[in-house]
Amino acid sequence: MVKEEVEILKLLIGEAENSDATLSIIPIVRMGGVGKMALAQQLYNDANVSSCFERRAWVCVSDVFDVLNITKTILRSITELSCKDKDLNYLQVKLKDSLSVKKATNFERHIDLETIGKKIAEKCKVSPLAVKVLGGLLHNKWDLDEWEAILNNRMWDIPTGKNDGVLLFLNLSYVHLPSYLKRCFAYCVVFPKDYKIERDELVLLWIVEGFLDGQKRKENNLRLGRNYFDELVSKSFLQQSSVIASKFSMHGFLNDLAKSIAGGTCLNSGESQLVRNEDDASLVKTHYASFILSWSVTSKCLRASYRMKVLRNLILLHIESSGGSKFNISNKALYDLLIELNYLRVVSLCHCDIIEVLNCVGDLKHLQYLNFSYIDIKRLPNSIVALCKLQALILRGCQKLFMLSLGITKLVSLQFHDIRDTHSLNKMPLGIGNLKNLIVLPNFDVGIKKGLQLKESKNLSYLQGELVISELQKVQEARDAVDANLFGKQGLSNMFLHWGEDFGNLWNDKHEAQVLHYLRPCTDLENLTISYYGGAIFPSWLDGPSYCKLVSLCLRGCPNVISLPQLGKLPLLKKLCLNGLHAVRMIGSEFYGGKRPFSSLTTLKFEEMLGWND
């Protein structure tokens, strides 16, 4: 079909170049089995087509024509976000809005906007930052009235100095933000100037502050918060770090703007300033505080904070350049601090050199967010069971943590439990399935007999993002994998299924095959890793086209497997890694699954395939 491909390619590119062209439908009609879908995929992935169309969507319509699911698929393809709403009208409005943003971006078709845009740029020429932020605000607005409202705002006429003028321009941008973004932006002032923050760290704080409470279902909050964050980045209110791509910060002028909005409710301070501010009467009004601390913290350093009787957020920050990788805070200083501040909702003590969490943390009845990441604690106190409002418990990078308190299973409000990189933690408490509101639980380690059972994950239906299930060789009943209901956990995008590396499971390959067969994940999955699996065959669900969104697949350390699934059918698969499949003797045509296999593949690795003869 080379001739047809070239002809259709010309039609597609010709329409893209003619912005006034009427919307076209290009049908591909032939008898079944001759490669119509393969041709469509080839055209969809063609580099020329990609460069011409900024928004593209791939939809496969089955014999059952379901308008709701088709709309969801198009919306998901365009926005790269999962969508669980069942209101067709709402989804179609969302789709219309998503497409209208990119409908026509050349100013030749918006000559009036170009004229106004030049006038706005002239007014704020003293500040490139103001131009950038205003541009981010207006980039997806095509209503002439909105542009004129910015141009004719009386704020331009206020006489100011250079720096004050920049703040006025930025305030003009802030005023025109949607209300849901205003409070999210203003909250960023809890972090000091130039501090680098991760997206999900800030989003979790927004959630516990109630900024996203308008949503009907809990499982939407994390996704919604990430959308808000990305929107602030696109409008230049937050900027990505040039050194660490996962970190973001706020420009100094924008930080000043956020401070002016927050009034006297927020304090950013170093320890020397804290000592000087001890008698400051305004401290009693402070709701949010972050302290930049160096190597050693004493009660004297934090004495000023005792006056903050209505303090809701306490964040202790350590900048590595100030000396050492952690800072030391004495038990007395921490105890004195916590017993004085009874209204705390957020406590973050990352990178502290402490080895135990004091029991008094259980007295913080209003606490909703607790972050002890990268500290050397070995266990949590039993008093944590009293934190009935706790929504987020972050223990990332606690290398010496070997045990979670049994009381954690009674924290029924808990939604986010991050235990990534806690390599000494090899046992999870029985009853984790009681935490039915959990949205984030990166790790699930299967126990034996009286330990945590796989079937306990049945009730964790709100899980999103990444899930690592380890020690699967300990699953005694294959039926437990059915009860786990991974297929119903539609919010998961990354999944890792790990058996033990000691290969003790290799002698029962039929049991292993059953377990993996029943561990079928949701079809929205984008990344999948299966490692140290002892079965002789991979499950049939890997053969079919159901996992059409899969981008990365790694099959590692499975020495009993004798054949490979038809992976060539996966249309979006970009990365495929096959490692340690010693029993595979040959790779035949069934691996490719058609005449045009692996249409999106960019990385292919075969490693340690010791039995491969072909």
From TrEMBL:
Residues 190-258 form the Disease resistance protein winged helix domain. Gene3D superfamilies: P-loop containing nucleotide triphosphate hydrolases (3.40.50.300), Ribonuclease Inhibitor (3.80.10.10), Winged helix-like DNA-binding domain superfamily/Winged helix DNA-binding domain (1.10.10.10). The keyword Repeat applies. GO terms for molecular function: ADP binding. Residues 20-102 form the NB-ARC domain. Keywords: Plant defense, Repeat. Residues 455-580 form the R13L1/DRL21-like LRR repeat region domain. Transmembrane segments: none annotated. InterPro entries: Disease_R_plants (IPR044974), LRR_dom_sf (IPR032675), LRR_R13L1-DRL21 (IPR056789), NB-ARC (IPR002182), P-loop_NTPase (IPR027417), WH-like_DNA-bd_sf (IPR036388), WHD_DRP (IPR058922). One of its GO terms (biological process) is defense response. PANTHER family: DISEASE RESISTANCE PROTEIN RP (PTHR23155), DISEASE RESISTANCE RPP13-LIKE PROTEIN 1-RELATED (PTHR23155:SF1241). This is NB-ARC domain-containing protein.
